[in-house]
Amino acid sequence: MSAESGLKTFRDTGGLWEGVDVMEVASIEGWQANAAKMITFYNHRRKQAFTAQPNSGHLALAELEAYFDVQIITQNVDSLHERAGSTKVLHLHGKLSEVKSSVDDKLVYDIGDKEIQLGDLCDKGSQLRPNVVWFGEAVPEMEPAMSMVQQAEVFLIVGTSLVVYPAASLVYDVPRNADITLIDPTAPEHLITDRDINILQKNASTGVPKYVQQLIKDYG
What we know:
Blueprint: E1 16-17, E2 20-21, H1 22-25, H2 28-33, H3 35-51, H4 56-63, E3 72-74, H5 80-84, E4 89-91, E5 94-101, E6 108-110, E7 128-132, H6 142-149, E8 154-158, E9 179-183, E10 197-200, H7 204-219
Helix pairs in contact: 4-7
């Protein structure tokens, strides 16, 4: 979703993210090895995220709230869904606009587009870090996400390779009688899965509005 708003994903360039090795800036080992480098990297990404604008895919999903109970589960760490108008957004991998204690996950602070520096401490005296889930860390929002998915009547997957786990496993929690659609320009015509998934080989900015209009026509 966010790539078309100008935000690169960590899978865009074969292991490099903004020209940096993914494991150096998106793993707990990277944090332990060079916290200052990671803080600088996420300060830069935070600024990028706040200058980006929601695209027509984000706006179309927000429009759906006028017709249905829409709940969004995103792996993206920006706030483009919220800025487009969506009101029920669960961030599986955290938020760039937040930082947290490096010793207590419950101590979370909203900083908007501000920067943090090495030496900025939480209330318990530990270094603040991005509130982003890195490789090597648990995904605390998986259980709420699974509960949401298990209630779905219509399940839309947008712009994902379905190879990032545990998020990719959510499709198996969708009720078998639900209507499942995958929108992605690189999606194969047939997925190897035991679920019946409709494939729309389009990018988010064109595929999502088309899908939304058809959904409103069929069910709205």
